[in-house]
Amino acid sequence: MKTTGAGLSAPGLLFAVAGLAALLSPFMTLAANRIVAGEGIFLWNMASAGAVIPGAAAVLAGLGLGLLQQPASLRFAGAVLGLGGALWLLTQGASSLLAETGEYARVSPAVGFWVLLVVLMLLMADALTAMAPRPLTRGAILVAILSALGLILWSGALSDLSVMQEFASRRDAFLRETMRHLGLAFGSLAAAVVIGFPLGILAHRRAALRSATLPVLSFLQTIPSLAMFGLMIPILSWVGATLPGARALGIAGIGFAPAFTALVLYSLLPVVGNTVAGLASAPPAALEAARGMGMTPGQRLRRVELPLGLPIILTGLRIVLVQNIGLAVIAGLIGGGGFGTFVFQGLNQTATDLILLGALPTVVMALSAAIVMDILVDLTRRTPKDKT
Q1: Domain for residue 332, yes or no?
Q2: Last-in-domain residue among 79, 110, 132
């Protein structure tokens, strides 16, 4: 990593400047109700000095620790300290602003908070990259962060925020759409594995099938997501109206079925392509040795090609899972459910916090899935000695 001055981190210096700019920007928004545009409130105007100073000091201290080149653990601690300070400012500002307003008033994080949140998360990621923790340690850090987030939400510390009030009025619907979103993302991944993994093995074995299959799947990948979801509507409408029992299985022009089908089609290229690439990555010498030992093609596949190609295959699954978590939001536009339901409701009602109710868990889910899959890829790349 490059340094600036006497042991200063160049990324840390950039983060510090961006963080200071965020603190000087409107930190919260106060609105008369959930729909109207709010007024930006600066840090020094949203609560008493006694409430603002501890949080601001924690943020500044965290940004200051982020300036240090070594050790990286101090930069990580600075990011955690800064996030704690930003959370303190958010809770103190929300309660103070609402205490002086009417019954329908809403408070929300403004641009200053969101920029500061991104800066501190980038600082944390930069520190973790320098620390280079083992895969299982990264998993423990992820569990700790998600547990802390869950504890904060469960404690009600953020209940004054408008997005949490949107959640409180839609708790049952949120839980239902969470399960629907998980079903779309993970269900389509499972279906793509069931279809794409055997197809990838066959394509690896037969060049003619490979040359015919991969271009078709590549073409499907180029279709814009909204157009793909739209194309599924007339096709599945015809299937539901023509085939006996199709509607009883939930196959119709709108709803879960077209969204699920579109996500499966999008998933096939990464699954098939990475399966072919993973199996092809086995060194010829290893394959010749396996043949010399008398292994059958099936045994070579199970004992040589799959173990050696597993990191590449898992990388394809990572692409699919993160992609589908994001694309499942569009399912809300065609009645497929998921977090996109809140996003499009919020757009129709010009309710920003309702949009956030769908967008924020999608981001958290996608980031968590990416980290978990990266850990699995790293574990499969390590030798038994490295894993101990």
Answers
A1: yes
A2: 132
